[in-house]
Amino acid sequence: MALSLLIAIIVSILAWSHFCRPSRNFPPGPYQFPIIGNILQLGRNPHKSLADLSKTYGPVMSLKLGSINTVVISSPDSARLVLQEHDQAFSGRTISAAAEAHGFDKISLALIPVGERWRKLRKLYREQMFSARRLDGGAGVRREKVQRLIDYLRKCSESGRAVDLGQAAFVTSFNLMSATIFSVDLIEFESGTTQHLKETVEGLMTTLGTPNVADFFPFLKWLDPQRIKKRSEFYLGRLLGVLGGIIDERFESRSMELERKNDLLAVIFDLMEESDEYDFNFKDIRHLFVDLFVGGSDTTQSTVEWAMTELLANPEKMSNAKNELKSVIGEKKQVEESHISRLPYLQALIKETLRLHPPVPFLVPRQVDREVKIGDYIIPQHSQVFVNAWAIGSDSSIWPNPTSFKPERFLNNNIEFKGQDFELIPFGSGRRMCPGLPLADRMLSLMLGSMLHNFEWEMEGGVRPDTTDEFGMVLHKAVPLKVIPLCCF
Ligand code: HEM
Fold this sequence. Notes:
Layout: H1 2-19, H2 46-57, E1 60-65, E2 68-73, H3 76-85, E3 92-93, H4 104-107, H5 116-129, H6 132-137, H7 139-158, E4 163-164, H8 165-182, H9 192-209, H10 213-216, H11 228-253, H12 264-274, H13 282-313, H14 315-329, H15 344-356, E5 366-367, E6 372-374, E7 377-379, E8 384-387, H16 389-393, H17 437-454, E9 455-459, E10 469-470, E11 476-477, E12 482-487
Parallel strand pairs: 2-8
Antiparallel strand pairs: 1-2, 3-5, 4-12, 5-8, 6-7, 9-12, 10-11
Bound molecules: protoporphyrin IX containing FE.
């Protein structure tokens, strides 16, 4: 009985994959093997394998990942078509089995379809978190968190200790987020709690980024063959638990607060009371905050770690950045956000880092909600769409010597990463573009500027930094960067 059922399933899949061949105008792509399609061609580094394949099949390429039609976009022009010209049709998200844990896909801003609820949440981000007024108001909090980072690095410097730079950047961005949301620091540079929460967020990111057979063959979702959804339930549950505890406590003690706190949670409580527009419940708020922590901390950490890695591998670029800081700010003063517009080399090195190491190499995968024609090609309804920002940033026809770290390439042009210049799209573009960009921009400049201005840096053991990356939801360094800070003043 079981055997005949298995045979029936295999025969139906084979028949399905044979008869449902792509239409004549479907974009070109490599041969699609029965059942598995092109899964094996993804390899360990899908961003690089798909960039290589697109050299043969073109910037709009079709693949089949198991039973899922997939379109890979690998040039600025095709990215413009998808993210700008046909933005609306391409604004859905592919939902992985892992993202369904705790109903996250039904609540998360990053995953819900574009609709009334999504618009309300984007408005909340735009007006209550990331408007220039709000961000200016939070400058003091960011200054304080970065000062804590400098103090920690100074302590390591005094004892000649190497620092895990990714870890230090993670703690800083996580606390920046928690201070903005709750007015508290959630983690310390050196404690068990740091590891616990860091492991939780990293575990969640790894789980969300692990290729899952159940995503390639959705009929296997109920079986959860790799236990990925189970792991996601575990990590997400742990994070939701910590956040829920804080929210409940604040709500209960609210009436007794002598002074109203100036943070996002206070704003949300006020909106819940005063406005019919924001009909949040506590579950919504917990998920909203998960979006912020997950969206903001790992991506910022990865960018800071990569920037420092590239600067250590290219000492003359490090000197250029330090000289600029010294001449604009002066030796003994601290970097402030108000200095950033006068630090073009610092801005250029951040752009160069995001070009070479976009933290989210395929953006957050999109899905088309209807059949669309782009250029000469038909993209079938429900196809998932990877915009390969890594391939675009590494394309030698756009960027001469693409593998070299050269911030100078951004000094004499107006290329920005704000979604208008499709050769540089680490934050995506169009209506689903990253809403955290204005905060990320300030955090990156302040953290990197302060680390460069306050310290000289030496690799532990005097070795050259390793520049191998490791694919996941966020593109991390395969080997963490361990460096010794030496006090400048
Ligand atoms: C270096 C830092 C960051 C990078 C590179 C980055 C990158 C991205 C990318 C590529 C997307 C998908 C865009 C698209 O589909 O076109 C995205 C979406 C998103 N990001 Fe970021 N991000 C960063 C920081 C942040 C921060 C600081 C926050 C919040 C505090 C944040 C919150 C989000 C959210 C909520 C979405 C989903 C938006 C939606 O689907 O409507 N990100 N981000």
